[in-house]
Specification:
Elements: E1 2-3, E2 6-9, H1 13-24, E3 29-33, H2 58-72, E4 75-78, E5 81-86, E6 93-97, E7 103-106, E8 108-111, E9 115-117, H3 125-128, E10 133-134, H4 137-140, E11 148-152, H5 156-166, E12 171-175, H6 184-192, E13 196-199, E14 202-209, E15 215-222, E16 230-233, E17 236-239, E18 243-245, E19 275-277, H7 289-312
Parallel strand pairs: 1-7, 2-3, 2-8, 3-4, 8-19, 10-17, 11-12, 11-17, 12-13
Antiparallel strand pairs: 5-6, 6-7, 9-18, 14-15, 15-16
Helix pairs in contact: 1-2, 1-7, 5-6
Amino acid sequence: MSQYDLVIVGAGPAGMTAAIYGVRADLKVLMLDKLAPGGQVINTNEVDNYPGKPKINGAELCMDMFQHTQSLGADFDYKTVTRVQVADDGVMKTIYFAEDEETVQAPTVIVATGTRSRTLNIPGEEQFKGSAISWCAICDGAKYRDKDVVIIGGGNSAVDEGTYLAGIVNHLTIVTDFDLTADPASCDYLRSLDNVTVYPYKAVQSFEANEDGSLKGVKFADKETGENEQVVECDGVFEYIGAVPSTEFIQDLGITESHGYVETDAHMATAVPGIYGAGDSNSKFLRQIVTATSDGATAAQEASGYIKKLRAEGKYQ
């Protein structure tokens, strides 16, 4: 069993910022993530709203953040956290992992695990998942060069990834249950492209297959009436229909709301002393890189203050 002052679960922008602030507050910091540092930002082709970094590739921005954490001396490990147990006196928290029986203890924990893609759970989705259906245009878009592609969704991710895909595919069709809801300038630009067609207020019903088992297309109809069914033939599909928080490992702590998002106060503190939330896994109004970094900085500062309080009371050394 190893011990740290601060354990950060999640290495996206919130977690990495927390690590930077934690180390600078003279805390011994461990940052954990089951995947590569960066979270969902890694899959973003172009970030254009992070101050001082106009039109930067998402993976590049994340690598800069991660290198910053490492230059300051924050520890990092690839681990899948399965449970956080709070000691009877409330001071130490024990973190358990899926990979092995090793545990880590710390008086403060920041939950910065972000979200994962939501799925439709309709006929054909399971069949084509991971082959013709993807959730990452940067990862899989190149194989659809000069082919026809469908994006499902109309939010920021759908519009941003759609703009990227439109530059390499033959034709891009966007099917969304409302309309394009990203910032107006981005939506207007995407709509203006000659090889883009948008179907708003539609409900996707199934993914259709050819006789040989390959993807034929996407079947959808009017959202309100279920009428006007049609199938748009395509070679691949990208789903961007929202996200769910990756917080199952803390569900028994009583710090999440009904949808699984972490409930915090303005200081990122949860109802459990010493446990904080930061980033997209928090219950919040705006989920952006800049708000995640703000959360991470606040949470780490609060964790530092909490540890100072414990030391002053003789409860932690």
